[in-house]
Design goal:
The protein has helices at residues 81-86, 91-101, 104-112, 114-117, 136-143, 166-178, 203-207, 215-242, 244-264, 268-296, 301-308, 312-327, 330-338, 340-344, 355-360, 364-378, 407-431, 441-466, 468-488, 496-524, 530-547, 554-557, 561-577, 591-598; strands at 22-24, 35-37, 123-125, 150-152, 185-187, 191-193. The protein is mainly α.
Length: 602
């Protein structure tokens, strides 16, 4: 590259948010002729995009024409030099993004396992050993254990015989009651559980989480989701600092260790701790993998790659419902969902680091090796003398405060915090309450996963036609309407089929929105703080997730309250989306050749 003149500006970006337009002497021009290109147009250090470089473009470079031709026909996502060299999307990107999508399988297993592992079971106060053959209904009448938590105090059950007729048993029990303690009730110390309920051994039966301990089931799930909320911001910072691949596989290894450890755990206190740690690392696996998949591709393919990265979610919902039905034991189910992580860890030797993150870090040699391997696999020819120059930044890894250092970042951060809270509250509010809608819990969960497959496919197709903003908003509004209709039919047994139909419609639309949300979020944040931004949003999501186990309590207050709450939040989220910018970019198609000619200069 020709040496820069003294009076020419350096290749950097303005720390006060102004766009810098550099003079670049192209080799095809004479020494007296210069042409101005916005070379490596960066988000500034506070994250404000230039008027040309929209939030969708990678902070590595943008060779877009400064005078784009307006019109819908020219809308296209911006690309960068790395994509121009190794291909915006090809066989290499397809293989890598498909492999990364497999990491979503154990994540989905772990987050939805509590639906089966913490399932409610029918229980009653334990019968004396010599009365085990006595029917449960008769035993409840004898012990006056109507709530299954208390029984008569001071009863000498040894006076009763198992082969005595029920009427005689009741007479003996009444006589004993009249002679002792005036019928006072005491708390049961141990319980028995139904065995032929298609639920099997759960947390409830393993640790007697009933009566005054019933809330501990929600606490166990809250610990997991608290780990999710905490891990969101921590994993984002570490991933920006140490790399997407490094954090992905460290988290995957820890996830496998904690998941298998839960199989052997017999202490409830240790179980709570392991569940919290599992949530902490699972969220890092989810979003490090998603960001890595998005940064492998370029242009409009970022949207597609990010969305089909989520295809394993509904399939995993259906698989775990089948596994839970076959095992009907929380420990055996835990073993089944922990084993897949072992095989995923071997992908370390196949999946490379993000070339765009490496370029930000200035590790040019590693970037070139990845570009050359990808270009070769895609069948592309690289220029013999191409060069890459890392962008100049104050810091490649930023902290949480950078999300609020410009008006643009403040706007999208506040909006996304509200949206992620809303989306997760509604999405998991439906999923985690499937068992309360009536019918078979395994069938309901499998059906909820099934409707999500076309939701993702339809969202992927429509999003290429109309953009993300309006479709995202529409999914939330439609989910709100579906929840409202479900609330109207609540409590009417003759309309149960209609209620479930509306719920599946709501699940369909909210699943489409849940597919768009992480991709939309990642595209609006600059690369240098992308993981921090997504991680901060995940904290808001974690707060919503912590509340979801307790949403079922609303129906005990008023039958319509749960679905009415989900309706209100869905409509609120759809309204907030309208304040976000669209990610489509207009540019002149003639700039493609200009970018290719200038690629060697970057």
């Amino acid at each position: 590259m020709p040496k820069q003149k003294q009076d020419e500006p350096a290749l950097t970006h303005d720390i006060h948010g102004r766009e810098i337009e550099l003079e670049l002497q192209l080799p095809l021009l004479s020494s007296k002729e210069t042409s101005k290109f916005p070379l490596c147009v960066m988000h500034d250090t506070v994250g404000k995009p230039s008027p040309i470089a929209t939030p969708t473009q990678s902070p590595m470079a943008s060779m877009a024409d400064p005078s784009p031709v307006p019109g819908p026909a020219d809308d296209e996502d911006e690309t960068d030099v790395i994509g121009d060299l190794m291909g915006h999307y090809g066989k290499w990107q397809l293989v890598m993004t498909v492999l990364l999508s497999l990491f979503q399988v154990p994540n989905t297993f772990h987050i939805s396992s509590s639906v089966y592992q913490a399932a409610n079971k029918e229980f009653w106060c334990q019968r004396p050993a010599h009365l085990q053959q006595l029917s449960v209904d008769v035993w409840r009448n004898l012990s006056e254990s109507q709530d299954n938590c208390h029984q008569l105090a001071g009863m000498d059950w040894s006076q009763l015989r198992n082969d005595t007729l029920p009427a005689q048993l009741e007479q003996q029990a009444m006589a004993a009651e009249a002679a002792d303690d005036d019928g006072k009730l005491v708390a049961c110390k141990s319980w028995e559980y139904a065995t032929n309920d298609n639920v099997g051994n759960t947390w409830t039966s393993e640790w007697d989480l009933v009566c005054d301990k019933e809330h501990l089931k929600n606490v166990a799930e809250m610990f997991f989701l608290l780990g999710v909320a905490t891990g969101g911001i921590i994993s984002g910072y570490l991933s920006d600092k140490f790399g997407r691949k490094t954090m992905l596989f460290i988290s995957a290894v820890l996830q496998t260790i904690f998941g298998l450890w839960l199989y052997f755990c017999s202490s409830f206190e240790l179980y709570l701790t392991l569940r919290a740690l599992l949530g902490l690392v699972s969220v890092s696996v989810t979003y490090s993998g998603l960001i890595l998949a998005i940064e492998y591709v370029d242009g409009k393919w970022r949207t597609i790659a990010g969305m089909y990265n989520l295809f394993p979610l509904p399939i995993s919902y259906m698989i775990i419902s089948g596994l839970a039905y076959l095992t009907q034991d929380y420990q055996r189910l835990q073993l089944c969902i922990g084993i897949p992580g072992i095989f995923l860890c071997f992908l370390w030797f196949v999946v490379p680091e993000s070339p765009r993150w490496l370029l930000v870090k200035g590790r040019i040699d590693e970037v070139k090796r990845i570009i050359e391997a990808a270009a070769s696999f895609n069948g592309r020819q690289l220029p013999a003398d191409y060069q890459l120059t890392p962008p100049t930044q104050e810091s490649s890894s930023q902290d949480f405060t950078y999300l609020f250092r410009s008006s643009y970042l403040r706007r999208i951060s506040i909006c996304f915090l509200c949206i992620w809270f809303t989306m997760n509250l509604v999405y998991y509010g439906i999923i985690l309450n499937m068992s309360s809608f009536g019918g078979n819990v395994y069938l309901n969960s499998a059906l909820a996963g099934l409707v999500e497959i076309p939701a993702i496919a339809v969202a992927m197709y429509i999003i290429t036609k109309v953009g993300k903003k309006w479709l995202f908003s529409a999914t939330l509004f439609c989910a709100g309407v579906a929840c409202c209709c479900a609330a109207i039919t609540e409590g009417r047994e003759d309309m149960l089929w209609l209620k479930i139909t509306f719920l599946m419609m709501g699940k369909f639309t909210i699943s489409a929105g849940n597919t768009i949300m992480p991709v939309y979020t990642a595209e609006l944040y600059p690369t240098a703080i992308r993981n921090v931004g997504v991680g901060a949003c995940n904290v808001a999501a974690g707060l919503a997730l912590i509340l979801t186990p307790y949403l079922s309590l609303l129906n005990k207050i008023e039958g319509h309250l749960l679905m009415s709450l989900l309706t209100a939040w869905s409509i609120f989220g759809g309204f907030v989306v309208l304040f976000l910018p669209e990610t489509a970019v207009r540019k002149n198609a003639s700039t493609v050749a200009s970018r290719r000619n200038a690629a060697k200069q970057v």
